[in-house]
Each structure stands twice: as C-alpha cells, then as structure tokens.
Amino acid sequence: MDTEQQHQLETFLQQIRAGALKYAALRCGSEHDALDLLQDTMIGFVDKAADFPQDSWKNLFYKILQRRITDRFRKQQWRTRLAQMFSLSASDDNDQPVFEPADDEHGGHQYEAAELQQAFEAALQTLPDRQQEAYLLRQWQQLSVKQVADIMQCSEGSVKTHLSRAMSALKQALGEWIDEETD
Amino acid sequence: MKKPTETKHKPAELLQQSAEQLAQKHQQRLHAMTRAAVYGKAASRARPTLYPAWRRLVAVPVLSLLGIALVWQLSQHSGAPHTQPQLALDDQVPAWVQDTDVPLAVLQNYDFYQWLEHELDNT
Fold first, then answer.
1. pLDDT of B86-114, one tens digit each?
2. How many CB atoms lie within 10 A of CB A74?
3. What sign results for the dihedral spanned by CA atoms B99, B102, B106, B112?
4. Cα–Cα nearest to A27, from A60, A62, A79, A78
5. What is the number of CB-based contacts under 8 A between chain A and chain B?
6. Domain locations in chain A as residue ranges
C-alpha cells in the first residue's frame, strides 16, 4: 500500500467513522461494544479496500460492519441459550426502551431538538433488527436500495418492505414530525 | 421529499447530530483506531514480505549446520560398531585377496585361516 492510498483510506475513515459509530451503537445498544466493532471493521476494511474502487468503499465498509454486528448478535444468542439451558436468569439489560410521546394541547407531539433526538432513537430501538438496518442504511446513510440489499444480504424488494414498515412504525410512534418519505 | 417546517425535523439530521456528538465524546479513540487501522496494517503487511526473506537467509545455513551436526552425531554413535571392524578387517586383508572371489565369511575369519595355514605348514 503506497502513501497516497493510505492518505485516501485515512480521509475516508475520518469521514465515515462518526456515522458508523452511531450506527453500531444504535444496532448493538452499547457505545463500548460499538467502538470495538468499529475498530474490527476498520481493520477488516483496510485489508480489503485496495481490491475495490473508491466509490464502493462506503458499501464495503457497512457490509463489513453489518457482518461484525450480526456475528455479535449470534454470540449473544448462543450465550443466552446456554444461560437458559443452565436455568440462569437472563439479563434484563436488553429490554427495549419504551417511548411514550407526550401529547400537547393541539393533539400533536411537540418536542425540543434534544428530546426529539432521544425520542427518535428510542423509537428506532423498538423496531425489529431488519427494519432498523434498512432504515438507517437507506434513509440516514443514503445508500441505494441495491447497496442496502447487498449489505443486508436480501432482495431489493425485501429492503423496500422493511423500509416501508419502519417508516410506518416511526410515524405511528412519533407523529407527523417525521419529514421524509421512502422512495 | 417534503421540505422541513418549523415543527418538523429530519430524522437524518437528528441522527447525524447525535453521531457527531458521540464521535466528539470518543474523538481520541476514534483517531487512534483510524491511524492503527491504516498505518498499523501497513506495518504488519510489510512483515510478510520483509521478514521471511530475512529469516530465510538466516534459517537456511543454520538448519543446514544443524542437519550436518545431527548426521555426524548419528554416524559417530550408531554407525561406529558396524564400520570400524570392517575397516580393521580391510586393513588386515592383503591386496591380492581383494581381487579374488573369496567369500566374505572367509575374509571375516582371516585370522583363523592364517593360523590354520601356519599350523599346517608346521606339521
């Protein structure tokens, strides 16, 4: 790897790392775990990036990150099953946060920005995994449906279905303040 | 896509804002992991190309010497009982005997036959 390519990789990682960290934190519910996953992803990405054109790096990066997250979930499930087999009580830490919006006098939901952020993330956490992935990758990371399908390893039709359901659930939970539409 | 109003917020913007806050909180570690991934990986990649060549240069003569020493040691211990008597016998055998078709058993008991010949001459 030459100096120019190293510089390109460093710049790319600097641009993507904030969003990727947030994505991982939302998906696994822990900042500490998200940092570890991101570190593994960066190493895996740098190892493979040279074989891919630069315009596909974002897709490659999220594909690797998604695999790391999936692997982590599988390990967690395995541990949970083992714990259940040995009759150990499962931890309540993974309980999904419950969002209860407060109605104002006009019947709508009025939030300050920080509250909205918190409420939105809480609502996201209540979505099924696949809907979360589809929503975050398509609506936030602005990846194409084809790219999202590649990352999620499913068909484009499935991505659209997950996305549509996610949007409906979020609108139902948070009201009309969501200002975007699926394509 | 609709335009945002005063009461509406774009979720993507909220998420991006939240992402930047989180990144700010872990700025040092993110910076360190980025550097480690890019430059640390480059360093570790350099090893397979440089170190094996360096190792080969050292390993080949060292292993050869070890092999020679091992063979020499084995020949000193296990090969000695078989070769030494044969050499001693060869030294005692006259040159003319080596050109004959005398059986090996006779050659190995050359002392006996020499004694026998001497005794027969005396009688």
1. 555 556 656 666 666 767 676 677 788 78
2. 10
3. negative
4. A62
5. 107
6. 1-88, 110-178
CB-based burial, B18-42: b 16+ in 10 Å, e otherwise: bbeebbeebeeebeebbeebbeebb
State residue A19's pLDDT score. 93
- B34 and A13 within 8 Å at the Cβ level: the answer is yes
Q: Which class is A110-178 in CATH?
A: mainly alpha
| Distance separating alpha carbons of residues A142 and B121, to the nearest angstrom | 116
Query: CA triplet A80, A83, A85: central angle to 5 degrees?
Result: 110
Q: Suggest the residue from A48, A62, A117 to mutate for an interface test with chain B (most B CBs closer than 10 A).
A: A117
Tell if the CB–CB gap between B2 and A180 is shorter than 8 Å.
yes
A9 contacts B38? CB cut-off 8 A = yes
B32 touches chain A (CB under 8 A): no
B9 and A179: CB-CB below 8 Å? yes
- Tokens in use for B70? 């091992």
**Residue of A46, A117, A136 lying closest to B14 (CB–CB):** A117
Q: Per-residue pLDDT for chain B (123 aa), expressed as one digit of tens each? A: 444 444 456 788 888 888 999 999 999 999 999 999 998 855 554 444 555 667 777 888 899 999 999 998 888 776 545 555 555 555 665 666 666 676 767 667 778 878 888 888 877
Q: Does B38 touch chain A (CB under 8 A)?
A: yes
